[in-house]
Amino acid sequence: MVQYLSPPLDLSFAALSDATRRGIIDQLGRGDASITSLADKFQMTLTGMKKHIQVLERAGLVVTQKVGRVRTCKLGKRGLKAEAEWIEAHRKLFEARFKALDEIIREMKREGSDDSS
Amino acid sequence: MVQYLSPPLDLSFAALSDATRRGIIDQLGRGDASITSLADKFQMTLTGMKKHIQVLERAGLVVTQKVGRVRTCKLGKRGLKAEAEWIEAHRKLFEARFKALDEIIREMKREGSDDSS
DNA sequence: TAGATACTGAACTAGATGGTTCAGTATCTA
DNA sequence: TAGATACTGAACCATCTAGTTCAGTATCTA
């Protein structure tokens, strides 16, 4: 996609664009889990779940650690701060835009209704 | 991806996962724009830009209207409310999780340091 | 130490994505 | 009314995605 600014946001929003992965984050919020237990919970092959975990891990949303034969997944410490900030800044931008439009409409109505002349 | 819950979040997070599309939202925050002007600004073919706009439109983040031969793009009224809510709820979930871990670590240190016996 | 369990990696699939070009059609403007 | 402008749509391409199966390897457990 040419523009290489903010690769982390690219990765994390892409990670969040899938309902299964959002579900995994939900689940890890309730407690750490192995890949096998997550695969069971989401009715998917181990390999399929591993791929989802890799996507979340590349985005920094999840970290994993292998102890013995079990790889345990938990929420990443970096959290969703950057994403929350982007969304919040732009939510305000949306609102400001509509406030500006309301202003214009109000202006047009005032002129149209001929109240002031 | 099997799980059909919350398609809107799927679509909007996917729309936001591309730097060009986030740039388009930035731009539309500063004022409405035609597809041609956006294509110029982002150095892309008209057709390429049209596809990005379609992605944003399907996600409800942008609305367009054709007047004469010009299609004007503006920010959608639905804003980023649902996305902000999901992110905020889960940001808290991340934090709660780490608070719980801190608690455990503090507990372990207390037992380990043998201060209390 | 044999068998079960937990993961890993390669290979394959169908379908989406982010772009392009090229050939229209519709609308404006001189 | 001719030419320029603004978009639209089809077709193509390379790459990614979300899944699968199958064949390992490593680690536990009886």
Automatic annotation (TrEMBL), chains A, B:
Family annotation (PROSITE patterns): HTH_ARSR_2
Record's signal peptide: none
Protein name per UniProt: Helix-turn-helix domain-containing protein
Molecular function (Gene Ontology), one example: DNA-binding transcription factor activity
Alphabetized SMART domains for the sequence: HTH_ARSR (SM00418)
Annotated HTH arsR-type domain residues: 1-95
